[in-house]
C-alpha cells in the first residue's frame, strides 16, 4: 500500500476509468479487476475509489485477502464492515457456511461495493463468490486488486496499472517532498526530475525516495547522491519496505518458475532481453521440465508468459505474431533477483565499480560480469585472474573488452561473451584454443564474438563432439569444414558472419551446412567484397528461419537455394542480400512461409508473383525499397495474409498497398491492416506512421 498526501492526483486518469466502471449502467453485479506489479498503486487506487463513492452504495466492505487467506476470516471482515454492531467473537463461533449465508442475506436486494484487496489465486474467489448475490437492477460492484493476470480474468474489462510517465513521476515526487503550496527550488528542479526518472515510474519507489528527501537537507549535492543511488536508498528506507512488497511476488512463485526469475538478474541493468535467446538459455540451464507433446522451447515460452502474467517480467516489444520478442525487468525486481540469488548461491553478478571478484565465488555455478560504459577505471586483469578459480561454473555471461580466456570449464553449459566494439576489428586475434573449445563437451549455448577453430587433428570420431550444443552465435568466419560439422550434430540455431581475409575464402565449405540436419534458424552476414563465398552454400531442409545480410545473391538464386526449403516459415532479406531489378517467383515454392521481410535491396523494381506462390503468407514487411514500382495486387488475394507494413518505400509501392487494402475492405476483410512508416530526411530517421 502506498500512503502519500495527494497521491490520488497522480492517478487521476486511471481513477476516472475506475469511476466509470463503478457507476456504469450495467444493472447486474460487475467484477472490476485492478492488476499490476507490486508497488504500482493498485491498493491506493482502489482506496481512493472506495472513499469517493461512500454515498453511492448502500453497503461497502473492504477486505484484505493476501497469500495465506482464510475464507472464514474473509467473511467475518465483510460482515464487520457491513454491520459495525457485530462482534468478532460472536462471528468467530459460526461455521464457514453460516457466515456465508449471513453475508448473502446482508447483501440481498442492496446496492453494494466490496473491495477484495491483494488476491493471489482464483481459488479464493471460487470459494467466496457464491455468497455475493447478483441483485439484478441494483448495479452492485466488486473490485479486486491483484498482481496476477489469471486472477484478473475473474472479471471483464479490468484496469491494467502501468508505470507513471516522467511528468507524473516528477509530480508525485514533488507531492512526496513538499508541503501543499510549496514549490521546488529552481536549482533542484533538474536533478529532481532526474531522480524521478530513475525511479522508472514505480509509485512505491518514488514515494520512498520522496520520504527520504523530505527528511534530508535540500542541497544539490545530496540530491545528486540520491540520483546515483536510487536502489540503495529505496532498499534501505522504511525497513526495506520496497523489497518486502516485491518479495511477496517471488515467494508466491511455483518452484519451477523461481530459477527462471532469478536468472533474470544475470542480464545488465535496463537491458532489453531477446526472448529467443532467453528461452534457449533457460533450456540450456535445465530449468525447463519436459511436457509430453511439447518442445522444451515451447514450454520455456510458457514459463515466460506466466512470469509476465505475474507482472515480474515486462513485455518490451512484441513480434508480428503477437509473441513476445523482447522483455525487460524493472531495476528493483532485478535487485530482488540478485539478493535472492546471492542468498541461495544460485548466481553471482559483479556489481558496478567492483574492481575484483570475491574468491568466495569458487563454488558458484552461474557468473555474470558486465563492464559498465561509465567504468572508466575498469581493470579486467583481476577479474580474469579470479575466473581461473571457478571450476564448477556452468554459466558465464560476460560483457567487457578483453577476450575471456577459456579455461578448463568442464561443466560449462552456457557461454555468452559480448564484445561488440572489437567484433569488427580484423587486427585482433579471435580464435580460441582448439583444445579448450572442443573439450567443453557440456556446452549447450555459445555466443562468442570469435572464430571457431577446427577440431584437433587425429582424434577419434567420438572425441571432441559437442553433442549438447544447440545454439552457436556471433561466430566469425565459420569454415564449416566436415570435421566441425560432424562435431556439432545437434545445432539448432546458428549465427555466422564473414569478414575480408587475406587468404580469401577458398578453405570455406558452406555446402556442408546441408549436413546440419537439426538446424532451424540461420543468420548469415557477409562483410566482404568477395561474394563467391555464397555461391556454393546449400541449406538444410530443416531450416525454419533464415536471415541474410550482404550476400548479394541474384534473385534467380532464390529458386534454387531458398524457395524449395519445405519447412521455411520466416525469411528476412536484409541490406544487399539480393541484387537485381526483378524478382519473379514460381509455383510450388515457399509452401510454409508465414513472414517475409525485404529490407534495403535497393535495386528491386519489379516483383512478379501470384497469390498461390505464397500460399500461407501472413505478414509482408517491405523497408527502404525506393525503386519498387508496385506491390503485386495478387498479394491481397492470399487468404492467410493479415498485414502489410512499409517503411520508406516508393510512393508507387504505397499507392499499391492502399489499393490492396481497399480491395480487402470491399471483400469484407475487416481484420486486414496495412501500415506505412515514412522516414524523415535525417541522418538517423524518425518515423511517421500512417495506419489505414
Q: Provide the CATH topology of the largest domain.
A: Rossmann fold
Largest sheet: 15 strands, mixed
Number of strands: 27
Shape-level CATH architecture of the largest domain: 3-Layer(aba) Sandwich
* N-to-C CA distance: 43 Å
Fourth-tier CATH superfamily name of the largest domain: P-loop containing nucleotide triphosphate hydrolases
Gross morphology is globular
Kindly estimate the percentage of residues that lie in beta strands according to DSSP: 15-25%
Stretches with pLDDT under 50, minimum 5 residues? 1-9, 373-378, 679-692
Rg over alpha carbons: 30 Å
* Helical run tally: 24
Tally of individual domains: 5
Indicate the CATH class of the largest domain. Answer: Alpha Beta
For the biggest β-sheet, the strand order reads 9-10-11-12-13-14-15-16-17-19-22-24-25-26-27
Subcellular location: Cytoplasm
InterPro entries: Apaf_helical (IPR042197), Disease_R_plants (IPR044974), LRR_dom_sf (IPR032675), NB-ARC (IPR002182), P-loop_NTPase (IPR027417), WH-like_DNA-bd_sf (IPR036388), WHD_DRP (IPR058922)
GO molecular function: ADP binding; ATP binding
Family: Belongs to the disease resistance NB-LRR family.
Topology:
Elements: H1 7-10, H2 12-23, E1 30-35, H3 42-52, E2 59-64, H4 71-82, H5 88-92, H6 96-107, E3 112-119, H7 122-128, E4 141-146, H8 149-152, E5 159-160, H9 166-177, H10 186-198, H11 203-215, H12 220-228, H13 230-234, H14 241-251, H15 258-263, E6 273-274, H16 275-284, H17 296-309, E7 314-318, E8 324-328, H18 331-343, E9 348-349, E10 366-370, H19 380-386, E11 395-399, E12 414-418, H20 420-423, H21 434-437, E13 445-451, E14 471-476, H22 482-486, E15 493-499, E16 521-527, E17 545-549, E18 553-554, H23 557-561, E19 570-573, E20 578-579, E21 582-584, E22 595-599, E23 606-608, E24 619-623, E25 643-647, H24 651-666, E26 673-679, E27 687-691
Parallel strand pairs: 1-4, 1-5, 2-3, 3-4, 9-10, 10-11, 11-12, 12-13, 13-14, 14-15, 15-16, 16-17, 17-19, 18-20, 19-22, 21-23, 22-24, 24-25, 25-26
Antiparallel strand pairs: 6-8, 7-8, 26-27
